[in-house]
Amino acid sequence: MEPLDDYIRGNKDRFNSEEPLVGHFERFDGKLKQMGRRRIAQPWTVLLKMAAVLILGLIISYAAFHEFNILKKSTLSSISGSAGPELNEAVQYYSTQLNISYNKIQSLRFNDDQNEKRQVLEELSEMDKQVQALEKDLKQNPDDERIVHAIINFYQVKIEMMDMIIARTEPFSHSIL
What we know:
Elements: H1 2-10, H2 12-15, H3 24-83, H4 85-107, H5 114-140, H6 145-173
């Protein structure tokens, strides 16, 4: 920047030689006033844009959640349908029980430790990956009773574990403090 500064300082007479046209300052003041009026309206447009993005995000989240549930139900019914109506009934029962337990865990305070709550929920979702692997095995071997028993056993163990988490965490969430 120094060479440019030196050039400007050395040639001041070339830069200050002409006056602006008549009415230049009035036009400039008018433009400044228009810019001032635009800034008054600008916070409303920003708020409207934020509201539109928020609404769009909520709609997309709802649609994604709704589609995920439909996909999960269709996957469960296709897996259960291949192994027989008994597995279908068991999967529906255990899924209902797991959803109830999951909702209870989500409503617990975990002694106001959100990090611990997040870790528990992550571990529960990791357990779902194991069941998905069993379901893939069942698709490949629909007549294998061992896989059906493993899926049912997995659901039972997960419900027992969730009940233990609820039982150990619930006294803290009902404390007086």
